[in-house]
Design goal:
Shape: rod-shaped
Distance between the termini: 92 Å
């Protein structure tokens, strides 16, 4: 059994570097890979191992952020497509109305 000793970061630059490394690795992983990593770290915990637990919580938080960003992108796409569909419907209504008017004038 190995015990991992983690020293607290001495400055905010080191903290930011660790955070940026975690975020960069997030972009290369799928949501399923991140979930697998979270569950694997949970099953490898010792009862007194709080550092791994805190890391697991941080990974879960990054997973939630990634999923919410993807949901936001999807929502924006759906809104744009809905707007385009409404515009096309209005254009078709005008063309249909114009054709009906032309047909009845004959």
């Amino acid at each position: 059994m190995s015990v991992e000793i983690v020293r607290p970061p001495e400055d905010t630059a080191e903290i930011n570097a660790r955070i940026n490394t975690e975020i960069d690795s997030l972009n290369t992983k799928t949501a399923r890979d991140l979930l697998r990593a979270v569950h694997e770290s949970v099953y490898h915990l010792n009862p007194t191992d709080t550092v791994k637990l805190m890391r697991t919580q941080a990974r879960f938080a990054t997973l939630l952020v990634k999923l919410s960003e993807q949901a936001d992108i999807s929502s924006r796409r759906i809104i744009k497509l809905t707007l385009i569909l409404v515009i096309l419907t209005v254009v078709l209504i005008f063309f249909t109305t114009a054709l009906i008017i032309v047909e009845f004038k004959k």
